[in-house]
Amino acid sequence: MFESTQRQPKPPRQPRQPRQPRQLRIAFFCTYAILTLATFLVLGLIGTLMAPHWQIQKNTTRITVQSKDTTIASKLTVPAHEGTYQIRQTPIKIRLTAKVTVHALVREPIDAPADRPACLLMQGAGTGKSSEVFGDLASSMASAGITTLVPDKRMDDYTMFHRNYVSMAHDYGTSFDILKRWPGVDAQKVGLYAESEGTWISSIMTAQRKDIAFTILTSPPVYSGRQQMAIAATSYFKTAGAPLALTRDIPKLTALNFSVLGLDYADFDSLNYISHLTQPTLINYGTRDLSMPIEQGAVTILAKAKANNNQNVTVRYYDANHQMRIGDNMALPRLPLATGYTQNLDDWINGIASGTSAQDWKTPMIAGSQPNQLYAVPPRTTAGLITSLGQLFALMLFGTGLCVIAFLLGVLRSIGKSIRRSIRRQRNKGQHLQSQTRMQSSMQAQVPVSTNFSRPLIASMWITGLLSIASTLGILGYVIVVVSQALTLQQDTKFLSLLWIVLRVASIVVILAFSWLCTQFLNPLLVRLTGSEGNEPDEISHVFNGLQRIIMLCVLCGSALLMGSLAFWGLY
Hints:
By secondary structure, the chain is of the alpha/beta class. Helices cover 47% and strands 10% of the residues. It has helices at 22-50, 135-143, 165-180, 197-208, 225-240, 244-247, 250-254, 271-274, 296-307, 341-353, 389-428, 436-445, 455-487, 493-529, 538-542, 546-568; strands at 87-95, 101-109, 116-122, 147-151, 185-195, 215-218, 281-286, 313-318, 366-368. Strand 1 and strand 2 form a beta hairpin. Helix 13 runs antiparallel to helix 14. Mean pLDDT is 85; it is low at 1-6, 432-451 and 534-544.
């Protein structure tokens, strides 16, 4: 009545692979140890070769102030001081080219003498408009009888990656000519005021034009951007509490060729133009400025001017930041200018306009707060094994790309296996099972040979590839954190040191995983060398066939490139 049911027989277990002989195991782990040690040594050597043959040194160029008082006074009669006149402000437009026109503001003293001096104010790095910058400086000068002109910065050819200082000097020259012709201005008494990056531009103008009566250089970099940034980054990293190993990477970075980004202006040679300085000059530095060569820069300008028989160079140091402002070392908005700064500017300009020579000053030529420049500007910035930012990017991008390709190929391979397995099940659906005896005899007659990766081998590959990528992203993120803290003058030494230790440990684990994978790659050779051909696991016999070979080679090559980039950052 009822059909009898019978349990299907369980398929017999596949015979276990014999354990590897002791000789093979010893050879495997000896090879692993040798590869690990060799990888450490090679990466350490590569890291050394990537470093340039120079480091940032302590500054030994010193300048001594002759008085703490920053006051500037001439022996000659000065026509006016700050606050003498009411101010009239006039907006104008300046046509630089047939297609480019910028706005500008003229501030002039009301009822001042008709032969008064004038000053063109030139901005530093940034995107300031004439209505937003130099309002306090220009107004103070105008109240002391000095006509001022503040033009907008031309932005159509000014970007983070492209700056042509010679062209910018030509544009400011157009504004300078307008100021010379302004009513009430003596064309023989018109000069320049420039800050930071703007001093590079003003130096071009003073070298090319002989009708500039004076020049004021506030926070001048003096040297090339590459040299100046080397000491700036070192000072900022030290302030942020960055590990010494990362601080030592600064020469590697600043020595790189940045042409891949178009940063050719990093090598602008301002000394070539400062060497032609013949005008009376006022140099201003803030002693809290970590980014500028506050002692070397002044000494260099004094020497260049002296070589041109120009002794009329005044130097003032203020207990202030890069913008000559007090209250915070950062360039925050609405900070007040250093005490006496605007008055000193006005008195110096009016003193020069009155004919004051180097011997006619009642006050010392070098005065103010005693500066202390920590690091010296490097005399050269030659690169090591990695010479350009493009090469460094290539290491990281190609290495990451190869690991990602290996991952994608592995996923595609798994999908393909799943599809084939599903098709096979569909074909076998509805067929009767063979008898237990027949099944057993069939399985014993032929044991299928695995052509798949073993799970430990798969884990080793993904650990190596993913950890290489994670360590590379980690060091990049770490550098961003350090730079962020440095620029905001925050200090968290313990936190940064802990993160650095984590990165060092991760980079060491990458080497261990990489060496293990290399040993797996060499395992078939070890099997043959130890005479263990009959004992090797099936997956080792076939692991390097077709797609499997490509996946493993991608992981190995990609990880090797990424470890090379980690060596650049001094992690080995």
